[in-house]
Design goal:
about 400 residues; alpha/beta; 3-stranded parallel sheet; about 45% helix; binds uracil
């Protein structure tokens, strides 16, 4: 009985495979109610799961929907995933780099939820860009262009989708066991041969400490191994926003800037690291050799042209990228050195401008967001511009900059 299963987990015992199936498949089919699953998820959050329990749950998520098979497309297909952050536009930069180096990528992404952004929204800020592709179109594009960047198909891991929606409203998102099963089931269902996960850690991420991030990383590597898919994990900081732009069209513009060599710094460095790992896995070459290829691809603008090619193939018109014309400059109230920029506060600000959503049904204003004009360690004078707010028409944004920028 579901009541006994909840109680068993509440008392800290490991569940049998049959019990996990009864609870989760029962929830999918409707015999287990939202309030019962909420209680079980809370008990899992508090008491965790053993590796065996996590494998069973991953398998249930994975097999609840379509499992894609791209083995008919030649080459080692490599996928990447980020556990979610603020200003994380790495997919837009990394996928074209990797594809330009003859490693095929089929990248399926999600939408923004809460304060973390989603690649599908970013792509949709490019007028005309198609994020839903049929299996035939995916195959044709991968063979001709080397990569697709699209939304996750509706039939991938429906059980995870239902559970994720419930976790989102019941304070049960930040369980390492549940996150590992959720992410890995989708990556396994996505059909790639090798997987790279970028685990974010810090104020603007699910994982707040290095220790938690490492536990999550180890778990995902174990799950990948169980399914015979090489999985590598990078742990990267998310105390501060990634790059300068937070907001959909603004982030696409920043990705273009990085690939055109107009922007150096931490965003480019992280993208080079991620792409290097993917090229190393896809071409089965040492990391040092892969890094040389990645740098060359950016410097020669090969990756930039690849991004334009992908956008055009998916019917996007990059010349129509709409960034809001209503721009408000936010200036410093004092002189000093920029000590910190709080990722979560920047995310809340971008959110208040319309760049994010709380419920899945909400519409995002793709043209709005925040562009940070200073770097950590930079000296600023009173009155210098700290950031630009791209707002909706006739909006007077309110913003407490002392919460975002630490200057002393
Ligand atoms: N991303 C996911 O897909 N699932 C989680 O549980 C957390 C982040």
């Amino acid at each position: 009985m579901i009541k006994d299963i909840i109680q068993k987990k509440r008392l800290g015992y490991a569940l049998e495979e049959s019990e996990i199936k009864e609870a989760f498949l029962g929830y999918l089919e409707g015999s287990v109610a939202d309030y019962q699953m909420s209680a079980l998820l809370m008990a899992i959050c508090i008491n965790g799961m053993t590796d065996e329990e996590i494998f069973v749950l991953t398998d249930l998520f994975l097999n609840s929907g379509d499992v894609l098979d791209f083995s008919h497309i030649p080459g080692i297909k490599v996928d990447k995933h980020s556990t979610g952050g603020v200003g994380d536009k790495t997919t837009l930069i990394v996928v074209p780099i990797v594809a330009s180096l003859s490693v095929p990528v089929i990248k399926m992404s999600g939408r923004a939820l809460g304060y973390t952004g989603g690649t599908v929204d970013k792509l949709e800020s490019i007028p005309g860009y198609q994020t839903e592709l049929s299996a035939d179109k995916i195959k044709k594009q991968v063979l001709e262009v080397g990569a697709v960047m699209m939304g996750q198909t509706a039939k991938l891991c429906p059980l995870d989708k239902k559970i994720y929606a419930l976790r989102d409203v019941t304070g049960t998102t930040d369980s390492i066991a549940l996150i590992a099963a959720s992410i890995m089931s989708k990556k396994l269902a996505g059909g790639a041969d090798k997987i790279l996960i970028d685990v974010k850690v810090g104020k603007g991420a699910f994982m707040k400490t290095e220790k938690e991030a490492q536990l999550l990383a180890d778990l995902m590597i174990k799950i990948g191994k169980k399914y015979g898919r090489e999985t590598r994990v990078m742990i990267s900081n998310m105390d501060r926003p990634l790059g300068r732009a937070v907001g959909n069209a603004l982030e696409v513009k920043e990705a273009l800037d990085v690939l055109q060599g107009k922007q150096q710094g931490s965003l480019r460095t992280l993208c080079v690291e991620l792409a290097t790992s993917m090229v190393s896995m896809g071409r089965q070459i040492p990391m040092d050799d892969a890094k040389v290829l990645v740098e060359e691809s950016i410097d020669s603008l090969k990756a930039y042209h690849k991004l334009l090619e992908i956008i055009k193939y998916q019917e996007g018109d990059i010349s129509g990228l709409a960034i809001s014309k209503n721009v408000v400059s936010i200036t410093s109230l004092k002189s000093g050195i920029v000590q910190d920029i709080d990722a979560k506060e920047v995310a809340h600000l971008a959110f208040s401008l319309g760049a994010g959503r709380i419920t899945k049904e909400e519409k995002v204003d793709l043209s709005t967001g925040v562009y940070i004009n200073v770097e950590i360690g930079q000296k600023v004078e009173e009155g210098d511009i700290l950031c630009y707010l791209y707002t909706k028409e006739n909006m007077t944004p309110s913003c407490d900059i002392t919460k975002i920028f630490e200057i002393s």
